[in-house]
Task: inverse folding
């Protein structure tokens, strides 16, 4: 009876193991036969009650069955694990010979590229890059720069005033005063930054755009120094020989003041639409810092002198890349931006 019992147990277990599909099922089979309450364990547990002869025979056979089942379960476990590994391998298979998908990278805005290039060139000439506030006081934007209230020169900059009495800076020149106040000369700085003008927009006018202010202050700085620095800058910026010319001009915060013209980098003076057939492009305002500005910044104008300039970053970028509408920079139009 017991013998038959062992045999059928073995057969049934073998069948179940064969049929099992995963490790959970196998684990259940193990419990059913070899676990504490398992069938084989029960048989082994009941040996004590048997006669000696029967016990010897039964214990041998039951232990053999136990060893057999352990081996079978082990083999099946390996088999299932191998299957799982194989199907995972198939599912995760990657053809490394297929060309990859190129991730789409963003890129720097053309104005940012110009700003970086300008900074690089001036830094190579020993200038530091300085920042200033976009919301300014009337004092720094005008008065300190020798433009008192009611002075007609204020008309040169159409200004956005805030309800607080502050204003949106109309140029980067206020940073001249802010910087000289805090530092002792000699000073060599540029100030790239955003500025605001209350203007009607068109292809060459925006209400917000960018300027780069420059300032060099020392005991003996001359117009010749200015011309050398600025000519070197344009050569490096346009990567070609550039001539400049100084035209007398007027700014309240410089004396004398100049307007700087650039020999057209597009047609090299041969006359094109960018230079309006003149061979020259008006590029920036400049001059020797007015004694009143130095006084207002806390310096004695007898001891110090220097030059300052302010140029349009948008305008420089437009000339370099032959862009005919300033509004494109602020349109967010990817058809335009992706060209840079
Ligand atoms: N701030 C002047 C402008 O916005 C430019 C300038 C800067 C002129 C420095 C002279 C010196 O037009």
Result:
């Amino acid at each position: 009876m017991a013998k038959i019992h062992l045999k059928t147990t073995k057969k049934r277990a073998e069948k179940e193991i064969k049929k099992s599909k995963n490790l959970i099922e196998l684990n259940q089979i193990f419990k059913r036969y070899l676990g504490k309450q398992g069938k084989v364990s029960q048989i082994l547990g009941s040996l004590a009650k048997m006669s000696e002869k029967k016990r010897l025979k039964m214990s041998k056979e039951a232990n053999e069955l136990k060893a057999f089942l352990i081996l079978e379960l082990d083999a099946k476990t390996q088999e299932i694990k191998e299957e799982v590994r194989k199907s995972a391998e198939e599912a995760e298979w990657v053809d490394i010979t297929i060309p990859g998908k190129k991730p789409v990278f963003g890129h720097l805005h053309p104005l940012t590229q110009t700003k970086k290039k300008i900074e690089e060139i001036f830094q190579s000439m020993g200038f530091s890059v300085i920042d200033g506030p976009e919301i300014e006081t009337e004092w720094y934007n005008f008065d300190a720069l020798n433009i008192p209230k009611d002075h007609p020169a204020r008309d040169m900059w159409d200004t956005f005033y805030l309800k607080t009495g502050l204003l949106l800076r109309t140029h980067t020149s206020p940073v001249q005063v802010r910087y000289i106040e805090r530092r002792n000369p000699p000073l060599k700085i540029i100030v790239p930054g955003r500025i605001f003008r209350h203007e009607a927009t068109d292809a060459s006018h925006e209400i917000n755009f960018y300027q780069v202010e420059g300032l060099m202050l020392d005991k003996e700085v001359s117009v010749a120094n200015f011309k050398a620095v600025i000519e070197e800058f344009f050569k490096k910026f346009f990567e070609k020989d550039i001539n400049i010319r100084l035209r007398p001009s007027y700014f309240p915060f410089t004396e004398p003041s100049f307007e700087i013209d650039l020999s057209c980098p597009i047609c090299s003076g041969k006359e094109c639409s960018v230079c309006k057939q003149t061979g020259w492009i008006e590029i920036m305002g400049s001059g020797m810092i007015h004694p009143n500005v130095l006084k207002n910044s806390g310096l004695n104008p007898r001891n110090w002198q220097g030059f300052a300039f302010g140029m349009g970053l948008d305008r420089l970028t437009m000339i370099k890349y032959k862009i005919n509408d300033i509004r494109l920079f602020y349109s967010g139009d990817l058809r335009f931006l992706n060209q840079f």
In short: Residues 2-92 form one domain.
